[in-house]
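Hi F.,

I've been meaning to write this up properly since the lab meeting, where we talked about keeping a consistent format for the predictions we share between groups. The idea is simple: the sequence comes first, exactly as it goes in, then the structure tokens exactly as they come out, then a line or two of notes. No screenshots and no reformatting. I'm using this chain as the first example so we have something concrete to point to.
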Amino acid sequence: MRFQVAAPVASLAICTAYALADEPRFSRTVVAENPVVSDVATGLMWQGCPAGMTGGASTCSGTALTRNWQGALDYCQDSAWAGFTDWYLPNVDELRSIVDSARSNPSIDPAVFPGTPSGYFWSSSSDATNASNAWGVSFDYGIVNSSDKTCTYYIRCVRARP
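Output, unedited:
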């Protein structure tokens, strides 16, 4: 019995990768009067404004909230932004994935994430070497750092896209 490798499968993979490369990574839309950002690279949906701010298709206004780590976890868990109730505080890898290292102050695309303060945002990731600390990402230069969970940092919630 002879087996033959199907060449069209490899071609399909190349075509799919090419099609994805032509699409913008982030898509900002307004759902139920709240902006959300879909990330085609990760399959995540981000709140389009930091916690405490409101916005539209291209803006965010108001004052971004800061909370300690537990307060940030609670904020996301209780959020009903854009009518969704499955928001959570992102882990450090998810949060780091939206850093734009070609930018600084803030180190994030301001067209997609307007109003983002240049400062630390909490992740849900505890520091395995110190249970009193958790990881945060600073959007001034994209720095990742472990800080005491009692510190107050900004919040941006995320959810998995259906």
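Notes:
Residues 1-19 have pLDDT under 50 and may be disordered.
DSSP finds three helices and eleven strands in the chain.

If this format works for you, I'll send the rest the same way.

G.
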